[in-house]
Amino acid sequence: MNRMRLIVVAVMLAALALAAFAAMRAYESLKPQSVSRIPTTAVKRGEVVFTITARGALQGGNTKVMTAPMTGNSQLVITQLSKSGDLVQEGDVVAQFDTTEESFKQREAQADLEEAEQQLEQSKNEVLAREEELTNELVQARSTVRLAELECRRNPLIAAIAAKQNDLDLEAARDRLQKLERDFEERKRAAKASIAIQEAARGKARMLADTAARNIAMMTLKAPMGGYVSVERNTNSNFFFPGMQFPLLQVGDIVRAGMGVVQIPDLKSWEITAQIDEQDRGHLALQQFADVRVAAVPDRKYKGTVKNLGGTTGPPWNRRFECRLSLDDPSAELRPGMSARVVVRTQSIPDALWIPAQALFESGARKFVYVRGANGGFTEKDVELVRRSESQVVLKGVEAGTLVALSNPSERSETKDTPKGAAGALTK
């Protein structure tokens, strides 16, 4: 019985407490608010560091771009291709093109080369035989001259007509010998000309065979260094519209000679590519330092340096430019494509007066703050803007420690923001 009585008393006390709390809240809601409810902040003095924040992606620096070979074919078909993110070692095959046409050219050129070598060997044999023939003719002509000279020695002993015939025969033999000796080298060169022709034909066939073999070798793309593969996008398309993003290359795609196929970044030299608003370009400069946070390595903060500022692109309502930063202290956990948050330190102003950005108000070219007075009201005070960021404003014209409003007091109605019959909260 006593236990039940205690429970009833406890419930009654709780109900009374709840009723008292509700009454207090109702009373507070009926009380008029005062201007002291307007949020304020103090003007601070100290070093202000201005930063630009952007999102970016990791990639290896000194990227090696591997392109479709210049084989003379206008289009090449991909028959083998590594995937983006695949880890390869130096010398590994990362892409292969269809070599059917080049293999046919190679076989055809090889057959022509073999035929040209046979023709050349035949020409050499024919030249040797011709040289033997010319040499025999020369030897026979010399023998004929010698015999004619021996016959002429008998001229004193024979009839004048026979002696005259011997003289004529000797003269004819000598003329023929002189002609053969004079034309011997020329006739040998003429015979060797066929060798030069066949050698030229063989050289042409060999060049075609070597070219086909070289083209086949070039149609196999091998990694020049170890790293992660990054497949390029297929831009070999006649269909395009603004904002369209081309798909990645894949097996079966047709590419142009000289077109980029894959990239292999140098993992010893990391870079970050970030897209930054056009309005921040004037605050960025080469060699500025940056803090980098990689999403996949949240416990570590990296250091970076602005390396390059690219051109501005995009529609008029969203103009951006590419900022490339080098990563100064990479670690083994990093991989290409990881997202990163970049904070670039653009300027540091020592001993500066600053307030939150929302505490500065503007009216045309005029810039001012609402300074809180001793009576709790606010007074407009003109200031000079030195520089602003998204969150901070460096200014001149107020003292450190001055309380300024974070919102516009004039936008609060008198019945809502001030007690009835109180003096005005805002003076100018």
Gyration radius, in Å: 49 Å
Strand order of the largest sheet: 2-10-13-12-11-14
Poorly predicted ranges (pLDDT <50, ≥5 residues)? 30-36, 413-425
Query: What is the tally of beta strands?
Result: 21
- Sheet/helix structural class: alpha+beta
Average of the residue pLDDT scores: 80
Shape: rod-shaped
User: What string gives the helices and strands in order?
Assistant: HEEEEEHHEEEEEEEEEEEEEEEHE
Number of helices: 4
Give the DSSP E fraction (strand runs of 2 or more residues): 25-35%
Intertermini distance: 72 Å
What does this protein structure show overall?
- This protein is α+β, with helices and mostly antiparallel strands and 428 residues long.
- Helices cover 34% and strands 35% of the residues.
- It contains 4 helices and 21 strands.
- It has a 6-stranded antiparallel β-barrel with strand order 2-10-13-12-11-14. Strands 6-5-3-9 form a 4-stranded antiparallel β-sheet.
Give me a quick take on this structure.
With 428 residues, this protein is of the alpha+beta class. The protein is built from 4 helices and 21 strands. Among the domains are: 35-48 and 351-427, conserved putative lor/sdh protein from methanococcus maripaludis s2 fold, CATH 2.40.420.20; 102-218; 263-348, Efflux pump adaptor protein, beta barrel domain (Elongation Factor Tu (Ef-tu), domain 3, Beta Barrel), CATH 2.40.30.
